Amino acid sequence: MSETQAPRVRLIFIALLLVLLLASLDQTIVSTALPTIVGDLGGLSHLSWVVTAYLLASTVAAPLYGKLGDLYGRKLVLQAAIVIFLVGSALCGLSQNMVELIGFRALQGLGGGGLMVVTLAVVGDIFPPRERGRYQGYFGGVFGVSTVIGPLLGGFFVDSLSWRWIFYVNLPVGAIALAVIGFAFHARTTTHRHAMDYAGAVILGSLLTSVILFTSLGGTTWPWASWQIVGLILLSILLLPAFVRVESRAAEPIMPLSLFRNRIFSATGAVGFVVGFALFGAVTYLPVYLQVTKGASPTKSGLQLTPLMAGVLISSILSGQLITRRGRYRVFPIIGTAIMAVGMFLLSRLGVSTPTYVTALYALVVGLGIGMTMQVLVLAAQNAVDPRMMGVATSGSTLFRQIGGSIGVAVFGTIFANRVHVELLSRLPKGTHVPAAINPQGIRHLPAAAHTAFVDAFAAALHPVFLTATGISLVAFALTWLLREVPLRTQAHAGDAIPPLRDEDTAVEAA
User: pTM, whole model, 2 decimals?
Assistant: First the structure.
């Protein structure tokens, strides 16, 4: 990187960090405010759709952004994603009823789906793989930080201002990122027409929609045996071979099947799916444990998860620095998934009498494992594919993790709900009425005997959740051994970023 280009690259990188912060925060910041939103807008029966609409739209849009970035350049695609996200955020804040909020959350998700995918692909354009580990380590740290501070910020805005500021806060941050990208990010020029794979896009979108809907709404909005859920599962099964057939014939497929013949991409996708399954499915229940068994408020339980964030931050940055220094990445997912499995097993030992500092230490272990794994998988996938497929490889890696997390939340939710029911029946005094809706605040106001029974039942029900997560983490550990070590390239793909680059400028020096 030339001396004149270095400040511009650093400026772009800071803007990309802001974009990633927006994308990752919005997946967690809304949860704390949902009860307040329902109290203001009504529509309790539609509560889950506030989360599902964003998740569904962002998951469906992600592969499209990856492909469009490869075809037409990432600057325009990233700018479009930011604008859509900001318009959706503003409209969410202005919503007057639950139907409007759900619709605008879907619009926000259509933009949000491109933020993370295109941002990671831009890093692939700017920095060569040998240097990329360091910068993606920072991205992993941002992702870990946002996972924990999202609920905290949500609680702060609800308590101090209004739930609407959860969405308004995106506007100044996004505007700054948009301005910097417009000024410093020079796009390449498309020199020929492309044949967009519309059929593949529609089928993939329908497939992802079916999977997200039955995993998100099964057992909650609709029973697992209902015709809606069974129909969605059958539709998913039918759409998968249809997608393979269409992609095998497309001139420029939305998700090239050749990617899956790449052993490294397939291995990173499999590990990402399993890690997402274990991580998002199990860690969702840590706040439940802290709020029910320890009586912590939502804000306090978020603060008590700070060690998880610290673990992700430390190991993401440290592993990124070591990858840049040594040029090797394979060892980190192997060690990371092993540490994550140990952390999940430790969490399975949590009980009512476990001190809070012990819980924090266990969460730290899980965070250290996550930080060594997540961003390294993206780096390995990007390094193993043709630079022209950087976008779809990045979106594919992210997609597998999202789908794994969605299915994990559904599976662990079923395990937890069933175990709570069994444990309550064995612990509550005979004749005690078990309310259909149970929340931490309601449990705190129960009579002493019933309160003790509920607390013990919740703690006991979490044991099989974390034990299952331990087993799944071990599966991820086994899959990481399939990941081959390929020398990290020392040249960046001079596609978007800062063209034109001379050959001697493409190797980006350490910042």
Answer: 0.75
